[in-house]
Amino acid sequence: MPDEPETALAPAPAVPKQMDVTEIQRILPHRYPFLLIDRVIEITPRQRIVAIKNITVNEPFFNGHFPGFPIMPGVLQIEAIAQAGGALLLTEVPDRDSKLMVFTGIEKAKFRRAVVPGDQLRIEVEVLQWRRTMVRMQGTATVDGKLACEATVSCALTDRK
Q: Is 65 an annotated catalytic residue?
């Protein structure tokens, strides 16, 4: 169970149970071609999120990774985990338009299978530790129920200035 914040957070807007890409863009600052989650299908505030990324042949990274054998880069799978976690965390921050959630660490990253065009990446993130300005999360990315990637990520909340 995640740690309680060091100080109480101001009430944030009600968290929807699901979000489409338009709602995700209201929470995250990322945009094409770097927005790596298409839909949120489950949220438990301050605890867990499940998101989907549909992998298409039109993804810009496939042009160079690898010509004739397209594979989604593992670092982008981890970025998708972090973005899903950011969507969960930033729903709790009422002044999120003036904040950024940035990586501070990646631990235990493992890649188990290739992610290719036509796959649907299911991203599940659970909060391990939550403080007022930092969080540690465990994330997995699966395709058809098979583990593609896993990692523990740490992020910090910073001012956009």
A: yes
